[in-house]
Amino acid sequence: MKLSIIAASALAATASAFPLSMNLFKRDYKNSTEVVTTENHLIAAYAKPYALFQPQVFIVSMFYPEADVWLDGLDFVHNITIPGLSPYYPDIHCTTNYSICQVTTGEGEINAASTITALTLSPLFDLTESYFLIAGIAGGEPNYTTTGSVTFSKYAIQVALEYQIDSSELGAEAANWTTGYYAFGTTNQQDYPGNVYGSEVFELNENLLNRAYDLASNATLDPGSNATAAFRALYPDLKASSLPGVEKCDGLTSDSYFTGNVMGDYFDYFAKLMTNGSATYCATAQEDNASLEAFVRAAKFGLVDYERIIVMRTISDFARPPPSMADDVLYFFNEAEQAGSSPAFANIFNAGLPIVTDIISNWDTLYKNGSFKADNYVGDIFGTLGGTMDFGKKEFEI
Ligand SMILES: *[C@@H]1O[C@H](CO)[C@@H](O)[C@H](O)[C@H]1NC(C)=O
Ligand SMILES: *[C@@H]1O[C@H](CO)[C@@H](O)[C@H](O)[C@H]1NC(C)=O
Ligand SMILES: *[C@@H]1O[C@H](CO)[C@@H](O)[C@H](O)[C@H]1NC(C)=O
Ligand SMILES: *[C@@H]1O[C@H](CO)[C@@H](O)[C@H](O)[C@H]1NC(C)=O
Ligand SMILES: *[C@@H]1O[C@H](CO)[C@@H](O)[C@H](O)[C@H]1NC(C)=O
Ligand SMILES: *[C@@H]1O[C@H](CO)[C@@H](O)[C@H](O)[C@H]1NC(C)=O
Ligand SMILES: *[C@@H]1O[C@H](CO)[C@@H](O)[C@H](O)[C@H]1NC(C)=O
Ligand SMILES: *[C@@H]1O[C@H](CO)[C@@H](O)[C@H](O)[C@H]1NC(C)=O
Ligand SMILES: *[C@@H]1O[C@H](CO)[C@@H](O)[C@H](O)[C@H]1NC(C)=O
Ligand SMILES: *[C@H]1O[C@H](CO)[C@@H](O)[C@H](O)[C@H]1NC(C)=O
């Protein structure tokens, strides 16, 4: 109880610094503080009775060009700085009536997890009913996407969380390994992990994904320039060489920014392995599993609704070279002009705005109560949020 008294007085001081005259999304006071004591174990789940803001949509960007499309396109007028955000991106931005807010995590897994943790624990924000749109750019698999395309993930897989030996140092026993990566707790590259850390796989609400996908499918996408089209044409794959579209397929997370066919094939294999064959890897990024880990932890204590998270990634570059550059991936990655970033940034807004608008417009009738509740399992590989997992095992060594 002492803790809550301290928190309350600190918050009262903060609250008085804010103008309260506007039509804020302020939570109804709920007495949901529970203190459960079992002998020496205190479990304190707390509500945020002094939260000032209850946004309906929270947009999560990873770096400035992903943020700028929203800051330019919507009427963000409030900047709110809270502890724990990236020093480079210290502000949350909110629209006039605080119904839509935006945060930039900074790039990579550590920045993403740290920022989302700070946000979900902030006493200023009640996020229990908020929808989160994680919207960034990604590398694309030419079989499934092209530059400028929009992808919505059901699974997020953290692929580089494995053992790794440089392939030049593998002995004869590993002559048939395709890379130097192999899963924790195994001795053989093709084996399912014996132990996990818990952030390897996350599954998201498919019904909400389908709604966002349907809305985005009606959007007009930026096709890119002639240079974009010219680079796409180097690929024999049907999707890669077509105009951008909207796809349902899954994202990988890796701090290691990999590229090329060898890594692509291996991580494609690993994504399937980790999701028991369910994931279709098409987009590679550096943050989503980290953000989702922070969201799972917050959801466990009721601070966010994990069924209200969407991961959307637009493709800024190919994750593999075209056949003509397969012998020189360094040239492909460092030098070749893909011209994909511009349509990818533009299409974050083009494809993301419809679901944002839909949530705001249909809040009372569809979204507040959660009409798009999940029928599939949602959560992590430990089953932290309950439900029956369609991947993972009953028990892992940790
Ligand atoms: C909140 O709940 C506690 C414990 O159930 C109860 O003792 C207290 O009176 C409640 N406070 C209010 C304001 O309802
Ligand atoms: C709020 O943030 C935006 C974007 O970072 C910046 O352009 C603007 O100057 C900030 N406004 C204030 C009042 O700090
Ligand atoms: C908040 O502002 C948006 C955009 O102007 C508007 O569509 C929405 O209805 C407003 N919400 C409320 C509750 O006033
Ligand atoms: C992807 O395309 C390549 C050819 O570019 C093909 O060999 C491979 O089987 C395809 N993979 C999938 C999963 O469709
Ligand atoms: C490599 O060969 C060994 C022995 O035949 C086999 O058990 C293993 O599954 C193979 N590994 C891969 C990655 O194909
Ligand atoms: C997409 O557009 C079509 C044709 O205008 C319309 O019938 C459909 O309802 C739209 N879908 C959504 C999800 O808005
Ligand atoms: C380049 O784009 C313009 C329109 O943007 C088009 O008229 C022209 O045909 C394109 N050229 C090539 C080589 O694709
Ligand atoms: C759903 O929303 C309606 C209208 O906002 C409200 O009256 C009703 O109580 C809500 N139901 C639940 C289960 O929250
Ligand atoms: C997933 O695959 C692993 C390894 O084959 C297996 O042990 C586990 O039971 C599978 N999980 C589900 C839910 O099918
Ligand atoms: C990360 O989380 C996503 C859920 O969006 C999942 O599909 C993916 O497999 C996870 N793992 C990695 C390595 O990215």
TrEMBL record:
One of its GO terms (biological process) is transmembrane transport. GO terms for molecular function: catalytic activity. Gene3D superfamilies: Nucleoside phosphorylase domain. It comes from the Eukaryota. GO terms for cellular component: endoplasmic reticulum. Residues 1-17 form the signal peptide. Keywords: Signal, Transport. Belongs to the NUP family. Nucleoside permease that transports adenosine and guanosine. This is Purine nucleoside permease. It comes from [Candida] railenensis.
